[in-house]
């Protein structure tokens, strides 16, 4: 068998290609995203209209929000981003799926007493809660089993305020499947009709650690995001993994075979907008990720965030490209070629990015700049999900 690399001229947007994908999304391309967080929610909802084969590898290293409570209680990977992305890709058009979608998206109240929260969880486990009563068997029975595993394992003083029912179901399934995420993610995806594949890049219970330029070391995603604690005042210099949630105990994660295969078989790889370090680069840290990317000769595209990212402290797109490439080359032990890791930076034509000087600096790094309309005039600081989806699909 011979392997050939074929290049073609691309038009953005390529309406013929887009229309073809829209007619038969079940045959659409395998667009792979390295991402986490909510930045891709709108894009994911659009992508499912053109392809049911997109792949989303999300970070399991978050340490904030409701996921933090589950991580502390059960020493498990973060699952909030996993649930959020599956909800974005879920098929909510069918009646059965809508009931499950509503249940999985429900959060327990923030102002209820611990006893009231425990009673609501008990009602869910017994199938008496109005939300779960709308779900038909056998799906209702399967969901109740996972919730019962969570309820049985839940520590006595676990804080249920604002708990996502979807997260609790995932946590129960994780515990029910000998602390493996893949079986419950597969079941969860079938229950809500996920139009694509969503997985954590690895299933390890590890934490992010950054070293700042001023010498400070911070462990925990929540300490660098600027959401739950004060924002960073010094730029991030290094990023690594730690076994301990509060101080650095160096750790290594290894990409599993199934995820490696999906990376190597993707029709397009996207490094999408979102928190640059904790959502994007975090997914590139496990051993084997960079090599799998380099082994695939499909187009690779970086889409920088439009909004202010507290993790970047004003670093421009050219610096982001350099940091992204350095992270990937570190995974290859500084071997390989730029063109095997990143070929394009996709920029909104209507935004002032830095003009010809920026283009020149990016081209000097060996990467091509593509400018095309990606925002709507009424919302210039947010990507238009349709325009961005169509731009990416035009490159497949």
Automatic annotation (TrEMBL):
| A Gene Ontology molecular function term of the record | LPPG:FO 2-phospho-L-lactate transferase activity
Source domain of life is: Bacteria
Q: What single Pfam family name could you report for this chain, choosing any that match?
A: CofD
Protein's UniProt name = GAK system CofD-like protein
> What is the scientific name of the source organism?
Magnetococcus marinus (strain ATCC BAA-1437 / JCM 17883 / MC-1)
């Amino acid at each position: 068998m011979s392997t050939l690399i074929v290049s073609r001229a691309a038009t953005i947007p390529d309406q013929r290609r887009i229309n073809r994908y829209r007619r038969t999304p079940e045959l659409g391309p395998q667009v792979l995203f390295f991402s986490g967080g909510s930045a891709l929610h709108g894009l994911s909802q659009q992508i499912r209209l053109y392809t049911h084969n997109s792949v989303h590898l999300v970070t399991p290293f978050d340490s904030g929000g409701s996921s933090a409570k589950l991580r502390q209680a059960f020493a498990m990977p973060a699952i909030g981003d996993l649930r959020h992305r599956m909800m974005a890709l879920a098929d909510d058009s069918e009646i059965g799926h809508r009931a499950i979608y509503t249940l999985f998206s429900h959060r327990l109240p923030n102002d209820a007493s611990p006893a009231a929260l425990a009673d609501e969880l008990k009602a869910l486990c017994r199938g008496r809660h109005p939300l779960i009563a709308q779900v038909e068997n056998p799906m209702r029975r399967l969901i109740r089993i996972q919730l019962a595993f969570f309820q049985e394992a839940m520590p006595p003083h676990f804080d249920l305020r604002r708990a996502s029912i979807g997260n609790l179901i995932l946590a129960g399934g994780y515990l029910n499947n000998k602390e493996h995420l893949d079986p419950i993610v597969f079941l969860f995806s079938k229950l809500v009709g996920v139009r694509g594949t969503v997985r954590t890049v690895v299933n390890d219970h590890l934490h992010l650690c950054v070293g700042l330029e001023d010498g400070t070391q911070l462990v925990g995603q929540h300490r660098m995001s600027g959401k739950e604690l004060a924002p960073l005042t010094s730029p991030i210099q290094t990023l690594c993994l730690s076994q301990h949630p509060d101080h650095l105990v160096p750790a290594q994660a290894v990409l599993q075979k199934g995820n490696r295969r999906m990376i190597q078989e993707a029709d397009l790889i996207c490094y999408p907008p979102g928190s640059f370090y904790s959502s994007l680069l975090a997914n590139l840290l496990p051993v084997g990720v960079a090599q799998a990317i380099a082994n695939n000769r499909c187009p690779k595209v970086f889409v920088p965030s439009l909004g202010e990212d507290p993790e970047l402290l004003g670093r421009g797109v050219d610096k982001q490209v350099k940091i992204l490439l350095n992270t990937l080359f570190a995974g290859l032990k500084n071997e390989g070629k730029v063109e095997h890791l990143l070929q394009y930076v996709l920029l909104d034509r209507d935004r002032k990015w830095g003009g010809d000087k920026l283009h020149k600096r990016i081209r000097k790094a060996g990467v091509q700049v593509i400018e095309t309309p990606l925002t709507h005039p009424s919302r210039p600081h947010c990507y238009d999900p349709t325009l961005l989806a169509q731009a990416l699909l035009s490159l497949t």
